[in-house]
Design a protein that fits this description.
By secondary structure, the protein is mainly alpha-helical. 79% of the residues lie in helices and 0% in strands. The model has no long low-confidence stretch (mean pLDDT 90).
């Protein structure tokens, strides 16, 4: 059982998969929901401070390196593009927009991209981390409900 929780934890740390993959994994392997959800949230949030504080610096350092340059440039462009899009749409509600950006479980909109965008926009660390956490909670809840078939049951009830 501990091994499966460790897998949930590690899946939730993987960029682009994050909690969106960890929760369905836990449901599929019939792990207890509350502990699995908590483990997935913790795993998804562990990289956030490191991304916020160091990712931009590392990406800028590596963008002109031979082997990693293209990937690092792509990451920088993705973060800047996400940040600009977030800023344009949000205006003064930037932190709520960050929460929703992270919380809507679509490819490329998780904690990694949201935190990188917040870093690119020089947003406040504490407020950004709280918005990302709230977004991770929202995404986890949506994925949990989807994994349990709640949305399918709603459509059948109509």
């Amino acid at each position: 059982m501990l091994k499966k929780y460790l897998i949930v934890f590690l899946i939730s740390m993987v960029p682009l998969i994050e909690i969106r993959g960890a929760v369905p994994y836990a449901v599929g392997f019939e792990l207890p929901l509350v502990p699995s959800y908590i483990v997935a949230i913790i795993g998804n949030m562990v990289p956030v401070p490191f991304i916020f504080l160091f990712a931009r610096r590392i990406l800028e350092w590596g963008k002109d390196k031979k082997v990693i340059g293209k990937f690092f440039t792509w990451c920088l462009e993705k973060g800047e593009k996400g940040g600009r899009k977030l800023e344009e749409k949000a205006g003064r509600g930037l932190y709520i927009a960050l929460l929703l950006f992270v919380g809507i479980p679509l490819p490329g909109t998780g904690a990694w991209t949201g935190t990188l965008a917040a870093s690119m926009l020089n947003m406040d660390f504490k407020k950004s981390t709280f918005a990302v956490l709230a977004g991770v909670l929202l995404a986890g809840t949506i994925m949990l409900l989807a994994s349990l078939g709640v949305f399918g049951a709603i459509s059948l009830a109509k």
